[in-house]
Each structure stands twice: as structure tokens, then as C-alpha cells.
Amino acid sequence: MHIIFFAEKAILPLTYTRPVADLRIGVLTIAEKWLKRLPHEGFSFLETGLLAEFYAQNYTHDQVYINAHYCPSAHGDILEILNHQEAAFFDNGKLIALRTQNHFFNGKDILEYGQKITKKVQISTSTSVFELWHIFQNNRKEIFLDYALLTHGRVSAPITDAYTRVYGLENIFIEEGVNIKAAILNAEQGVIYIGKNAQIEEGAIIRGATAICEGATVNTGAKIRGDSTIGPFSKVGGEVSNSVLWGYSNKGHDGFLGNSVLGAWCNLGADTNNSNLKNNYAQVSIWGIEEHEWLETSSLFVGLFMGDHSKAGINTMFNTGTVVGMACNIFGSGFPPKYIPSFSWGTNASFHLNKVYEMAEAMMNRRNLSLSEREKLLFEKIFMQSNEDRRVFHTTL
Fold it and tell me: Each residue of 86-143: pLDDT tens digit?
């Protein structure tokens, strides 16, 4: 059985560079959650648009199409997918999976076929992710579910540092190679997962539910207030609350990050802050890049969303519900606009591709990685696609 992940819509700017199934929420990506729970013989991503040429589908005589907007629950009923051929699997009327011999090439056809098929089976899911803010809003729940999945039947590595203070030790799991020095870990209100080779420096305070992924660093004196995920090989300092950082991103200095999501290879300069609550306590709206309109989040607490490879200079102040595209270099006085198109230099000029490559390569080289030709080609396509967006917004800011 081959698994193919498909999506109903883009979630920009985060899915400029990755499938929806590759979004991280909790400890794991959505795809990883399914792949760890559902036996399979391989997987691929069904992509359209810019990502189509970068992700090839592998069709077989037996495939399961998984709706990437849904995370599996801890209940074993998703294993019902193994027990039925030519069947559609629903949760409260929403198509979650389709097992068939047929080959489909876009999500719309999968959804239509799933409604028509005779055999329909009910299964349960835990969380749906259709909008940017769904990621941090559901992060606490997914940390608990991923924690249970990853730690079941296993024994945590011990905390050996005599100067580290621990509350709720039974709710903490430490992978091998972790180094903790003179920190405070409070898991009384939520679990704490610390991934392989992570570093927790002196004076760091971590409250659960929190996931510190493989190779990540929590800097000296950092305050992780809970419901947060620090992605693989990321570095954090200052104050972080209910936020998700993906791989290789840095918020290394003082400053507040709350109710926010940062993509991969982002960097926030020293004393950068974001607002996550309006002064008038009104619900927050954000700019929908795909929808080309302002979207109501129906939430009071919404912070910053930033696409891959974007950077912010020191003392940057982000307003409530700010959306930053990918590969932006943000600097200047005052609050930046609530929407900054991809490849913006400052807030009112276009970032030349060669400069983008130089900046990305400089950051990646610091981690002994390099920008591939495949990534450069994708950058170029996104740059061209976002030209009109920059023209419109840079002339109206």
C-alpha cells in the first residue's frame, strides 16, 4: 500500500516551499504523524502548481490518498484503512482518506470520487489545519499526541545535572545526547519533549507543553512559556509563547515571540518583538496571500507568520497578525506593514535573486549545508509568481 498526500488548498507563505503534509505541528510533521501510525510500502506527495515538478507521485496498484489538512488521532480506528479496498474514509462528513486502485492527479478529483464511492467508513482525526493560525492554536494538543506516540514503551534518558530544577518529571522525555545545565523544567501543566542532541543552556526556563526538536538550542536565560515547538537545529532566546519554529530558524536574543509561526531558515534580530493582542482587544484579521483578501481569524491572539529564508533586523516591531512572505529582508524604523510580499528588501523594494541566494547560502553554510540548484529554481519560480504582489503592495504601502 502506497500513501499519497494531497491538499485542498495552499497555506501561504509556508507552503511556497513544502507540501501541506510537510507542515510541522506538535513535534512531528503531518506526514510523519500518518506514516508512523499507518503501515505502508512508501509515500509521495501529490502537488499542483509550482511544486508539481519538484514532487513526483509514485502510483501503484494500491494507493491511499491522505488529506494532508488532517492529523490522525491517537485512536486505532485509522487502521481501518488497512481493512477495506476501494473505500472512502470520513470524519464528520470530511474526506480523510481514499483507498483505491485508481490514479488521480489533483485533490478536487479525489474529493469528488470519495463522495461517489459506495463503501464509506468512519474514522477519527485529531486536528485540522486549513489556515495559518490553526498551527499554533492546535499545537498544544498535537504536542501531547506526538509525545505519547514517540515515547510509548520507551524510557527517557536521565537528567543528571545537579543544578537543574524539575517539576513533573513523569511528564518529561529526554532523548539521547541532550545536554541540560542549570535550567528549570516545569511539566506540571503539560509534557516536555527534548529531542536528540538538543542543548538547554544555563538559566533557561521551559514550561510544558513544549517540544524541543533534534539539535535545537535553548539559549541562556530563555523563557519558553509553553504550547511551543522549537524545530530541528533551531536556536531560541528571549520569551517564546505558543509559537512554532521550523528547522534551522533563529530567534537567539531577547524579545517576545507569541502566537506565531516561523518557517525554515528565518532569523529575528536582537530585541525583535511581535504583538499578539490588539490594544482594543478586537479580533485579528490577517492578509490571505492565496485569497487576495483580509481573513478574519476569529481570535484575539494572533502574532507573526513568516515564510522560509526571511530575516528581520534588530529592534523590529511586528504588529498583531503580520504576514511576511518568503525570502524577505526586513529593516527600518516603526512598525512594518501587516503584509510584506515575498522577496521584499526593506518594505518597499524588490530583493534581487542573486542577493537572496547569497543570503541563503551564507546562513546555510554556517550549518555546513548549501543551497541546491533545485532550491534556486524553486526560488526563481516563486519570485516570478510574486512579482505582481510586490508591485501592488509596494506602491500602496
Answer: 999 999 999 999 999 999 999 999 999 999 999 999 999 999 999 999 999 999 999 9
The pTM score is: 0.96
Round to whole Å and give the CA distance between 161 and 182: 7
Report whether 222 contacts 236 (CB < 8 A). yes
Rounded CA separation 278/258 (Å): 13
Going by C-alpha positions, the residue among 78, 13, 67, 74 that lies closest to residue 39 is 78
Report yes or no on 7 lying in a domain: yes
- What element of type H or E holds 268? strand 267-268
Q: Which residues of 355-368 are buried (b: 16+ CB within 10 A; e: fewer)?
A: ebbebbeebbeeee
What's the domain count of the chain?
Answer: 1
pLDDT in tens, 70-82: 999 998 899 999 9
The reply to whether 6 falls in a domain is yes
- Report if residue 260 sits inside a domain: no
Contact 191, 143 (CB under 8 A): yes
Query: Is the confidence at residue 57, as pLDDT, over 90?
Result: no
DSSP letter (8 states) at residue 319:
P
Q: The CATH number of the domain where 66 resides is what? A: 3.90.550.10
284, 380 Cβ separation under 8 angstroms: no
Tell me whether residue 109 is in a domain. Answer: yes
Domain that holds residue 69: 2-130
